[in-house]
Amino acid sequence: MTLDTTTRTGLHLAGVTLRLGDGDDTVTALDEVSLTVAPGELVAVVGPSGAGKSSLLAVAGGLTVPDEGSNTVDGNDLAAMKPAARTAYRRQHIGFVFQSGNLIPALTAIDQLRLIHHLHRRRAEPREAEQRLADVGMAGKAHRRPHQLSGGERQRVGIARALMGGPSLLLADEPTAALDRARSHEVVELLARETRRAGVATVMVTHDTDVLRHCDRVVEMVDGKLSG
Ligand SMILES: Nc1ncnc2c1ncn2[C@@H]1O[C@H](COP(=O)(O)OP(=O)(O)OP(=O)(O)O)[C@@H](O)[C@H]1O
């Protein structure tokens, strides 16, 4: 799948602070976090439980608005957008990969991709769904439903679905959590390859130190602060 990605600038988080909870229970989930991810780059975020990794993905994906700082995707500051514009931008330009694929049980692999396309009204290329499935090695199983696929295969479909419409930013939350070691390597290798091929800026949160060698860069989150 070829796309004009020459105008892309990737993800830029600058001075992002996010406070959660109220009153005495307020937690600084993100503390002046800055992070740049270039188009075609896969960055892993590691760190202990409660460090703020999910919060980082939520802000990067425009699901949560930070208290301070900017969150720019290809030059568009999501933090400064009105809610409806932010939702529309997210649907068109940001793809999500979840822990275990999050596929819809009743739909075949190919229909998982077609549905997301209809729902999100992303720009369509003829036969894009077929091509995306072929890119992740799933062309031969396009008409299987999730229960007829292995965990690794479901995750491949999840990655293909997230890439439908050519998003600028791909956010993966523990994509290998449900997989054994061999499948984990395959899935993260695929994520790295598709990141480069699609020219998408990818952020992957993971506890799985084994797969970090497939990533271009690893950053660590501790107590809401980023290092690395
Ligand atoms: N809705 C909320 N209200 C108050 N505090 C919250 C809320 N959601 C998360 N937190 C707190 O914010 C901090 C960051 O949480 P976050 O879920 O981002 O961490 P994480 O690194 O993703 O953790 P894990 O690896 O366990 O998923 C934690 O201290 C958490 O308890």
Can you describe this structure?
By secondary structure, this protein is an alpha/beta fold. It has a single domain (29-227), classed as Rossmann fold (3-Layer(aba) Sandwich), CATH 3.40.50. Helices cover 31% and strands 25% of the residues. The protein is built from six helices and ten strands. The strands form two sheets. It has a six-stranded mixed beta sheet with strand order 6-7-8-3-9-10. A four-stranded antiparallel beta sheet has the order 2-1-4-5, covered by helices on one side. Strand 7, helix 6 (181-198) and strand 8 form a beta-alpha-beta unit. Helix 3 (109-120) runs parallel beside helix 5 (151-163). The longest helix has 18 residues, at 181-198. The structure holds adenosine-5'-triphosphate. Residues 20-21, 27, 29, 47, 49-55 line the site of adenosine-5'-triphosphate. Adenosine-5'-triphosphate (ATP) binds at residues 20-21, 27, 29, 47, 49-55.
